[in-house]
Design a protein that fits this description.
By secondary structure, this protein is α/β, with parallel strands linked by helices. The chain has 2 domains: 116 residues, HAD superfamily/HAD-like (Rossmann fold), CATH 3.40.50.1000; 58 residues, no CATH class. It is built from 10 helices and 7 strands. Strand 6, helix 9 and strand 7 form a beta-alpha-beta unit. Helix 1 packs antiparallel against helix 4 and helix 2 crosses helix 3. The two termini are 17 Å apart.
Length: 193
């Protein structure tokens, strides 16, 4: 490990946790209500960059006149969130990072309901700062989301590494923000060693 390293940031989904029973509620909702490709892209963008209490709020950002019962999809989201589990060595890896006196950050692209996973899995205490795309209005690989996290950690980006499972979002985004490094992991190999 680099002797000048002061912090490590992690991606959440696919890196530390995963959805054990995926239902793909947003995709199913988009297909069922007949959103166009452009509307679907807008839905995904808004879901990841804005906070919302209910799916109806999210849908209004795409089509304010659309009236449809979304309770089935709300239930699917709840079921999916309830099925989120840690990868086998998540806690051990986070504890090891803490034991090395590294500050730990979390940078995740996610929709509002999925923030519950951090509390449900009792992971929030591991992190010195948490940056969710839905809270800050930015999503990876935008370098600004990495820069915001570095500022919150009060550490120069070149003394931070990013660990994630997506080459573009995690590795390239971190490099574009001048992080020391971006490390791409294969979650099943990384966490089973």
């Amino acid at each position: 490990m680099n002797h000048q390293l002061e912090a490590i940031c992690f991606d959440l989904f696919g890196t530390l946790v995963y959805i054990s029973k995926p239902t793909n509620p947003y995709l199913k909702m988009s297909q069922d209500i007949g959103l166009s490709n452009t509307e679907n892209d807008n839905l995904k963008y808004h879901a990841l960059t804005q906070n919302f209490s209910h799916l109806q709020e999210l849908i209004k950002t795409i089509n304010p006149n659309l009236r449809v019962d979304l309770s089935e999809y709300e239930n699917m989201v709840e079921d999916e969130v309830a099925s989120i589990v840690c990868l086998p060595k998540t806690r051990q890896i986070l504890k090891e990072a803490k034991s090395k006196n590294l500050k730990i950050g979390l940078i995740s692209n996610l929709a509002t309901p999925y923030k519950k996973a951090i509390d449900n899995l009792q992971l929030s205490n591991f992190f010195d700062t948490i940056t969710f795309s839905c809270d800050c209005g930015l999503r990876k690989p935008n370098p600004k989301i990495f820069e915001q996290t570095a500022q919150k950690l009060n550490i120069s980006p070149n003394k931070i590494i990013m660990v994630g499972d997506k080459l573009k979002n995690d590795v390239q985004g971190a490099k574009d923000a001048n992080f020391s490094d971006g490390i791409l992991i294969d979650k099943f190999n990384f966490f089973s060693q």
